[in-house]
Amino acid sequence: MNLPLMKLKSYILLLAVSLLYACAIFYFSPYTRGSDQFWYVGDVERLVQGDGLNKTNNIFPASAPNDSLQQPRTWVQNRPVLYVAAVADYLIENSHFSWLFINCMCLFIAGFLFANLVSKKTSTFLVAYVSFLLFPMNFYLCMQPLADLFNLLMATLIIYTFLNFKHSIRSIICISLFTGILICERDNYVLLLFVFPFLWWKGKESIFQIGYFIIIVSVIVVVKKNVFPSNLLNGLSFADAIFHMPANQSNMSHYLYTEFPTLSLAGKILIVWEKIIAALKHQFLSVGSGFVFFYSLNILFIGYLFLFAKSFREKRVQLITAFVVVHLITIVAFQNQYRYAATMIPSLFLANVWLLKSLKKLNQKLILNSVIGILVGCFLVCLFSGKMNRTEAFKMQKATNEIKKIHHDLNIENLLIEFDTGACLNQAYAVSPSLVFYFPENYPNEKLINKCHSFHTKWLIVNKTAAIYNFLKPHIVSEQELKETKNKVLVSTSF
After folding, report:
1. Of 294, 284, 399, nearest in space to 340 by CA
2. Rounded Cα distance, 408 and 415, in Å
3. Which residue in 76, 176, 223, 241 is a FRET match for 257, CA 20 to 30 A apart?
4. 20 exposure class (CB count in 10 Å sphere: 0-12, 13-18, 19+)
């Protein structure tokens, strides 16, 4: 690696910026909040500080075995990064903070590599590094115990190795391993297996390089099912997810449902068309809490489009386009969540840098003032995002502790929970390692009774305004309102 030619003072400044950034992350994220975050924290916590099992207590219709001896199930998100976080947890002894540490390390390394690709000049390097850290979505994801920044690092390593080293066997092996790890993180990146070989093609002399890549990545894909087994027993195939899962449906659908209606060819085309429209609306007309993340990505995407139109024949542009295309396919096939774009961020940043460098007649003073203004704006957005995250974390902590206390006081063994939003995943975390079966709002009544019997429990958490509550009413023996969770009640039934 060719390090930037900086003086010792500059490296000290780089370290100081990184430490201040890490302090801000730990301050603004004192406790786990969100949805999937509770899987990542709970799974690592159980392995390191609990009963030592790499299992989850979250059971869904698509992961519920017929034989109760097959419970508990393997991790819901069984990915390489969880084992990295587990090592950190052995040292830190706090699962949530272990994830924050991993996130900071991933972001710092990715930011350093990105800045190194931008310039070896000290001032430009530092500005590029700080810009990468202050990008609002990077700051937000750093506060969340999720896999996305690890995935971002893998994408950055692939791009850096491709651009910074000759295509030797050693670099091909490194890129193959990084790609394989990324596929183990998210199956959709298997598409890179079919794209990258074209980037190396220079005639017959490149056959061996391409062969090494295909063989190594293919082996990783084949062994993945055994090394990182899936939580799902009745999961949807990739084709089913594209052609049968309706637009605007929760990305939890493949956990909560095991069957979708059979559609004609016209019906499948209609679903894909509706998904494309939904993804575009979500991306460009978002008004929810994540709108700032979508719109900041959109601004970077505009720069990428200009670069693509100008230089699409360049290998480096084709390389970053591979990540853009995979992301576009992902948000259509599944759901457009802003955090799915994490692996695309290095590509979009590089695209905008390359575009600016290609425009030689730009006023340098104007560029400098614009960059300063953007950084100040990003800093303020990060402060607001951090404050909101800290407030939500304390609120979620109260809700989780309430369920923990009730679970302990009533000596509840297992539990059935109505799944309405991802926010209810904290409830399974609160009662771990007791088994929790999550069921959808429209779950058949007869099946619900059967699940109470198979899980040997009479306890359920349901929404007081939902239809299932009306069905349960005649059978409720006792009822307790969850004060910290709106409209939710814990009921004991006569089943």
Report:
1. 294
2. 13
3. 223
4. exposed
- Residue 330 CA: distances (Å) to CA of 30, 75, 279: 31, 22, 10
List, for residues 420-455, the tens digit of each pLDDT value.
888 899 999 999 999 999 999 889 999 999 999 989
Which are the contacts of 473, defined by CB distance < 8 A and separation ≥ 6? none
**3-state SS, residue 413:** coil
| pLDDT greater than 70 at residue 1 | no
As a whole number of angstroms, the distance between CA 382 and CA 292 comes to 11
**CB-side exposure of 224: number of CA atoms within 13 Å?**
23
**Once rounded to an integer, what is the mean pLDDT over residues 36-58?**
92
Q: Is the pLDDT of residue 481 over 60?
A: yes
Nearest CA to 153 out of 81, 233, 87, 242 is that of 81
In 3-state terms, what secondary structure has residue 1? coil
Angle between helices 315-333 and 291-311 (to 10 degrees): 140
| One-letter identity of residue 120 | K
Instruction: Give the three-state DSSP class for 441.
Output: coil
**CB 82, CB 40: distance < 8 Å:** yes
Burial level of 411, CB count in 10 A (0-12/13-18/19+)? Answer: exposed
pLDDT at 343: 96
pTM of the model: 0.94
Q: Count other Cβ atoms within 10 Å, centred on residue 456.
A: 10
Query: In the numeric block, which tokens belong to residue 269?
Result: 């085309």
Torsion angle of C-alpha atoms 197, 200, 204, 209, degrees rounded to 10 = -70
Q: How far apart (Å, rounded) are the C-alpha atoms in residues 36 and 146?
A: 7
> pLDDT tens digits for 335-381?
788 899 999 999 999 999 999 888 877 777 778 788 889 999 999 99
Query: Per DSSP, which regions of 1-99 are E strands?
Result: 55-56, 58-59, 73-74
Distance CA 156, CA 107 (A): 10
pLDDT at 67: 66
Q: Give residue 333's pLDDT.
A: 77
Report how far residue 330's alpha carbon sits from residue 336's, in angstroms, rounded to the nearest whole number: 8
Q: How far is CA 77 from the centre of its chain?
A: 10
Among 41-45, 71-75, 204-208, 385-389, the range scoring the smallest mean pLDDT is 204-208
Judge contact between 157 and 149, C-beta under 8 A: no
